[in-house]
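Researcher: Sit down with what I've pasted below and flag anything odd:
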Amino acid sequence: MLRLILFTIAIFLSACSAPDRDIVVQGPIPIPINKDPTDQQLKQALNSFLENTEAPISSQYQFSRIDLDGDGRRDGLVLFKNPYGYWCGMHGCTMLVLKAHNDGFTLVNSIQPIREPLYVATNEETNGWKDMFVRVSGRWDDAKDVKIAFNGSQYPDNPAHLPNDPTFSFSEAVPLFQRY
């Protein structure tokens, strides 16, 4: 009896099936490619920042682009150089972290003081953002290498308060803002 029921079901299903057709196998749906904003858009964002904060128009800076949050867009790191006394002091200068979007940049936060070089880890991240390392020196305390880790909304604003990180490996990091 069970065989008869299974045979009937098999005949019914074969009668209901569509005639043989070529089956086209398509690849996965393409993931939209994030648009990486241009260096010019970064400079426009910086000009807006300088205007909105009433910072000196004559401010001089270096910038570097690197994908910090793994979204395929190169974020911006901007290290101000001048005017001394506004952006820089005896322990270093102000650095801005800017998140890249398809149409420009938004400020994540500023970090100060920073002295070059700054290192971005290639294999370490915290809360989805790459860790950065910098040497803190020129103070009463001993010089130290510190990890600047993202806390979920921003990076710490002052690396001098961070502990020494002896695990830092220069070979596993990208150096930025090299001294010449």
